[in-house]
Sequence to fold (410 residues):
Amino acid sequence: MAQPHRIVVVGTGLAGASAAAAVREQGFTGDVVLLGRDPRSPYELPALSKGILLRDADEPDWVRDEGFYAERGIDLHTGTDVRELHLGERVVVDGDGTRHGYDRLVLATGCAPRTLPVPGAELAGLRTLRTLDDALALRDVLGDGVPVVIVGAGWIGCEVAAAARKHGAEVTVIDPLPLPLHRTLGDTVAEVFRDLHARHGVTWRLGTGVAGFVGDEGVVTGVRLDDGTVLPAEVVVVGVGAAPRVELAKAAGLELCDSVPGGGVAVDASLRTSAPDVFAVGDIAAHFHPRYGRRVRVEHWANAKDQGTHVAGTLLGGAEPYTASPYFFSDQYDLGMEVRGLANPFTDDLVVRGDLAAAEFTAFWTRGGRVLAAMNVNQWDDGDALQALVDIQAAVSPDDLRNADLADLT
Ligand SMILES: Cc1cc2nc3c(=O)[nH]c(=O)nc-3n(C[C@H](O)[C@H](O)[C@H](O)COP(=O)(O)OP(=O)(O)OC[C@H]3O[C@@H](n4cnc5c(N)ncnc54)[C@H](O)[C@@H]3O)c2cc1C
Fold:
């Protein structure tokens, strides 16, 4: 393929901004145009539900310093909504009708928070958390004694609960599943998180769905559970997952993937979509992962950063597959954790090293004796060893996983 002259990136999140930065860092001297809906310079999301909500920070982590884009000749357009993609003409059209021609395009439009299709879903005051403005507005209303109801006990719901408790709010978390983070962690490890939050004063309403939201003069004042109970709330946060923003790709006729949860834009191992000059990275990309032999879509920070960087090589003519293992981290109260790899906690075998009750342990998920995923909780010495075990899917006995020096196993 001929070298590109003009690369356009849609989406100024971590994936898109990393792609734009990386093409410059890899020596590309043609035009780079970075278009994004958010009014701010590109920033990372993890601090929104941690440092920002906790009031430890007023700013998120910026993907690059403010001056970076201008200094490197990256034509950054914030507050710019891309509405159309015309594959044949190789052009995207923004909300002002401006046409941005490309000879390579990167789609990095991320995810949008899901909402619940229940009565009252239109009420004002229902909050989701995806942008810096969402986080700043939410932290303003988290205060001592404020009744806060969080719908959804996933990562965002749990992190918001931890921040709200830090500010003394009265926090109830609702989820139809029997445990928080259940789908990702399975029974035994999810119980650690249930107990952690309970110890910090969170009230769980697990195994319970939301029938609707109730309000007064158009503003939400409570959450109605499946059993008819109404939980009064001054603050209601809906954290029921996020859906990839595939609208542009779909309307343009790019291949989508429905074999991954939530769907996504289908890309091959080197992050190329069904159109040879269009690529997709980050939360929207349903990527054919060579190690797993199937498409996976990963909604995590490291994936956005690393796919954004990796695609620069593909844009500039390479064909290297993206092979990194998924990696994720979370902080809740005094618990910090990382997960590496991909496993099914309901069908894979769990091996625990350390002390679950003290929340100081490493959990391994194995299949056929091979390590598929590892999660270290308040244990920080073995990161490299865990990465290596997961990357090579090492065959290790449960006894060694529990007791041996992990560095000796790789
Ligand atoms: C509150 C929060 C906390 C998180 N914490 C963690 C964590 O602790 N650990 C972890 O591993 N992961 C975490 N994540 C997940 C991680 O941040 C995401 O996986 C990552 O940010 C995805 O990056 P992205 O660039 O693919 O998408 P996004 O960050 O969603 O960026 C997409 C960008 O595209 C823009 N856009 C969309 N459509 C258009 C359009 N048509 N025109 C123009 N622009 C458009 C959006 O406005 C957005 O700015 C967290 C996510 C959230 C929301």
About this structure: The first strand starts at residue 6 and ends at 10. Residues 10-16, 35-38, 45-46, 48-49, 81-82, 108-111, 129-130, 156, 245, 248, 282-283, 299-302, 304, 328-330 surround flavin-adenine dinucleotide (CB under 6 Å). The radius of gyration is 22 Å. The domain at 337-409 is CATH 3.30.390.30 (Enolase-like; domain 1).
